[in-house]
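Sanity check

After download, print the first record. It should look like this:
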Amino acid sequence: MAHLNLRDRDGVITREGLIFRVLGYTHPPNGCICDAEYALSELFKSENPKAFRGGGKQVFYKFYEDEGWKFIQKNFPQYLIFYEPLGKKVIGINFSDIALIRRPDEVLRKLLALEFKDGLLRAMQAVLELIIKHLGLQLHVFGVFGSLLHGFYHPSFSDIDLIVYGRSNLMQVRSLLQELYNNKSSGLSNEFEDDGSVRGKVWRFKNISPKEFVWHQKRKLIYGVFNDKASRRLIKVEFEPVKAWNEIHNEYHEIVRITWQGWVKAFMQIEDDSEGPFMPSIYYVKPVEIVDGPKVDDIKRVVSYLEEFRMQAWKDELVYVEGNLEKVETKKESFHQITLTYGPRYYEQVLKVANLK
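Expected structure tokens:
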């Protein structure tokens, strides 16, 4: 199959009924790195009450945290593709194995063009009209992901999962959301205004507390709640950042080798946060102190494939990082990075502001 133009959050579906989302922007030439999102109930069933997804005659279950990584490794090794710089296989799909592609911006336009809209679609339209009215953005700036993208959302229970394409558009949307959250009559509020979203839940992360997590999530502004008076529901709304086509750079052929060097605990200062909103989130840093692990002085960046640590820190902030130390060799230079990703020590990884008050 010829090269396909895919970007983060595009949906790819296999013949067996596995649904992946494209992860990031750096991919090998004949396929794409992915994250496993959903599987048909004949393939996978989850004990998590949040995982069920019903859609017409088919039932799907969602993978949470590192469930998808473990499931694919054990049951579908054909969806592990060789990533040459790492010298190993990662979750991904060859273009020849893709049965169907769902593009978030195209699906959004189709949903809004439906003559009959259920309660969730009407609420989504109201949110978009509120944003577009204030900012004058075009509809193609937005897309949908999650169950809305794949058609198995529940009109009375599902969330509104939106994508915002482009860095400048994201900045405008976040600025507006701050205003709307402060205006009680807007119908939108910050999901993390309090700790209700994590209260009473099992907490697995070892190095960030629920209180610290909520503090970070609140200031990201992309997690909201819409008070939909028509359906009398409080609906969670997410504004997921994805790069515009002209912002994408595939560095796959520039990287010669990435070598794991050990586990590291360190304090870093953020020097550039411009890639922080996207997946993977990349923070360019200046080392302050290596608390534990290999003592290297050329750590250039922190790279996170975990959504929990997207938009986690801003320029000039001091952060505490714990994760995988890697040596990166490119065609032009070599340096070290700390990577947060799927693996055996998933819940020990962290990126957080160090001097919280």
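If your output differs, re-run the checksum step. Summary of this record's structure: The first strand starts at residue 11 and ends at 13.
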